[in-house]
């Protein structure tokens, strides 16, 4: 290819002989706006750090100050039949407590739509502020948590659903990123479905906790 062809407008050509200065951030794409200003990169990074710090502060409340009551529902066939004791319930309970919730209980049910719905509905009737279910949000035959949850919801909160999925993909928690889990309000209770790997639980809780605080405070205003 000639030098003229390589410089033809609208074409992006990378030559083995091209010297790339990794510190210049002079990245040009076809039709792109031109070089990236390093000052813009620094400013964006600072803004991202400030956002994360602000939400970390929101999830770590002074000792004794609680956002509300929570209940955990673990959806797992093996655990429900006592065959697997590596439950995620304690992990979710710990993360909820760190976020400022009083955890009433962690219950375990099998991947049965009726059982899951009954557990969630019992929590709603019991007046808890937040119900977090773990498991049953994939594409397997027994993954029916979304189907059990949807009839209970008065309002879907798709912003929380998408935030959890996006965060899961970014964090490398594939099951969290591909989750079919729902989030929404049932009566005066916020319901959130999470995937059941430890990575998905940790990332999902880190994403959902500050959003849950906002939703619960909004509900309590009425």
Outline the structure in words:
InterPro entries: MoaB/Mog-like_dom_sf (IPR036425), MoaB/Mog_dom (IPR001453), MPT_Adenylyltrnsfr/MoaC-Rel (IPR051920). Keywords: Molybdenum cofactor biosynthesis. The chain is built from 9 helices and 6 strands; from the N terminus they run ααβααβαβαβααββα. It has 222 residues and is of the alpha/beta class. It has a 6-stranded mixed sheet with strand order 2-1-3-6-5-4, sandwiched between helices. The protein has a domain at 75-221: MoaB/Mog-like domain (Molybdenum Cofactor Biosythetic Enzyme, Chain A, 3-Layer(aba) Sandwich). Residues 1-33 and 58-63 have low confidence and may be disordered.
Major β-sheet annotation: 6 strands, mixed
Distance between the termini: 69 Å
In CATH, the topology of one domain is named Molybdenum Cofactor Biosythetic Enzyme, Chain A
Rg, Å, rounded:
23 Å
Query: Uncertain spans, ≥5 residues at pLDDT below 50?
Result: 1-33, 58-63
Number of helices: 9
Give the topology string: H per helix, E per strand.
HHEHHEHEHEHHEEH
**CATH architectural group of one domain:** 3-Layer(aba) Sandwich
CATH homologous superfamily of one domain, by name?
MoaB/Mog-like domain
Number of strands: 6
* Overall mean confidence score, pLDDT: 80
Shape: globular
Proportion of residues in extended strands: 15-25%
Q: Biggest sheet: strands side by side, in what order?
A: 2-1-3-6-5-4
Q: Would you state the CATH class of one domain?
A: Alpha Beta
Structural class: alpha/beta
InterPro entries: MoaB/Mog-like_dom_sf, MoaB/Mog_dom, MPT_Adenylyltrnsfr/MoaC-Rel
Organism: Gordonia lacunae
GO biological process, one term: Mo-molybdopterin cofactor biosynthetic process
Protein name: Molybdenum cofactor biosynthesis protein
